[in-house]
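Example record used in the benchmark description.
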Amino acid sequence: MTTATPEKSEAVSSDHTPITVTLKILRFNPEVDTEPHWESYDVPAQRTDRLLNLLFYVKDYIDGTFSFRRSCAHGVCGSDAMQINGINRLACKVLMKDLLETGGKKTVITIAPIKGLTTLKDLYVDMDPFFEAYRAVKPYLIAYGNEPTRERIQSQADRDRFDDTTKCILCACCTSSCPVYWNDGSYFGPAAIVNAHRFIFDSRDEGAEERLDILNDSEGVWRCRTTFNCTDACPRGIQVTKAIQEVKRALLFKRV
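Model output (structure tokens):
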């Protein structure tokens, strides 16, 4: 009969040892506040908790007026995008063990709404401008002529050409991390361009020219300053900046 080594036993116990962390949240209620303000909450947690669990604790046990978006809690819906310690991330994908201070220092986590979109309440922002830009690039398959009598066949190489940009979950982490978008919300933004890329380079699609014309606008791809903020912020690991550059190249050389 084998027994756990002391090292493993200590690791297991430390993962389940309750700790207290402070959430410093930027709060805003348009019914009572004229400006956003910071409020702090001491919350019990475990190393294995996700930050989303702690936000639920604040809402369920401390302040029921606290507002934030959430849905699947598995990093697929993209609803709970927010600034966590100044970085755009999904609260459901952030583990407490990655945020805890070492050396017995108290852990303080700052949480604020994503930038560039109007805050409606607390961490809840107006996503309408974001989705308007998304819809404007025609993010769907366009095909002309008669409907095919069989499946539209595509080679693996053709599928691989746009595989990366199929992963977008429309969380707005990339768009709201873009300095150009902060300063001028009329810019299409990285997420819209990523979703245009997904169809521009799809061999079955016939609407590439239409989308390229849309993105050749003054608010399109040429506004990108290649800061790589968008790539760094993407919770799905999409090479956003690379996709934008490929769309620019397609416009320059008129070749997809």
